[in-house]
């Protein structure tokens, strides 16, 4: 299959040819349209009146992302969970033990654990996962953020910018656990929820894990969410299905693993949403799903389908069964509910 043509070019056809020749020289054979456009952007920066600080930000961000992509590429086929929480959590805090137990349980199921690589909750997650199962993305700060001793050097990156670090902490993982923390933790939790609510990230489970028995942190946050945010119409009342609050490690593990009991992944093909599964719904299941989720269908029905032509062209998970619908993109919270129904079908329960 031929590569798509670049959507951006320089003002000079001759310069375009030289940029393509440069890709030839370095042996770039795949994704040449994207690589070409990156070079075009660099050329544009050279001709724009760009401040040196802006160029330093662009340069550092690109280098950091390249290093992170290379690290995560080694573990592309391994499921990962990112754990967020306070760097100030002490080792004798019950939250430390819970985090360590959570990470240990997920690592035992074949998952890798990604954290910010610092102390507190981050150290607990890496200690629980073990050296072979821990990846750390550190942030360079003048305080608090030396990397912890539970991370192997070949799985540790240190970044200058919060935004590149946060991108990699979120982009690569299939599940998230957020423990109590300060401004940074709340920022991360709210960005996770924003990405899910707006569909800027694929559906993933988010667990807000509180202290056993006496935990109030996330319940107090939820009261604010309901009383001040939902009540004013800033978010929908059903957006609470984007997360689960629990103080039980086993329930947290079950939420993350259970999200993928039947659901595998999604892909948009123009106006159709394809949901790839492990077990196809029966005709009766499809009838029930269409009755319950008619509100998220922008015309038509939820139907079983063979791989669509675009998926076939990309050889994209052709072995999996799938369903398709014309999804109303205002209802990503309801999409989470649909995924949970698919995971709880009787045919899946018998697996």
Question: Could you walk me through the main structural features you see in this protein, from its secondary elements to its overall organization?
Answer:
The chain is α/β, with parallel strands linked by helices and 351 residues long. The chain has 3 domains: 13-49, no CATH class; 80-258, Rossmann fold (3-Layer(aba) Sandwich); 263-349. It contains 13 helices and 11 strands. It has helices spanning 13-25, 32-47, 52-73, 94-108, 121-129, 162-171, 183-198, 217-230, 249-258, 283-292, 309-314, 332-343, 346-349, and strands at residues 80-84, 112-115, 134-139, 156-159, 175-178, 206-209, 244-246, 263-269, 272-277, 303-305, 322-325. Strand 6, helix 8 (217-230) and strand 7 form a beta-alpha-beta unit. Helix 4 (94-108) runs parallel beside helix 5 and helix 4 (94-108) runs parallel beside helix 9 (249-258). The mean pLDDT is 93.
In CATH, what is the class of the largest domain?
Alpha Beta
Rg computed from alpha carbons, rounded to a whole number of angstroms: 22 Å
Low-confidence stretches: none
| Largest sheet: number of strands, sense, barrel closure | 7 strands, parallel
Strand content: 5-15%
Helix share, percent: 40-55%
Task: Supply the helix-strand structural class.
Answer: alpha/beta
> What is the topology, as strand order, of the major beta sheet?
4-3-2-1-5-6-7
Compute the separation of the termini in Å. Answer: 38 Å
Shape verdict: globular
Compressed to H and E, one letter per element, the order equals HHHEHEHEEHEHEHEHEEHEHEHH
CATH architecture verdict of the largest domain: 3-Layer(aba) Sandwich
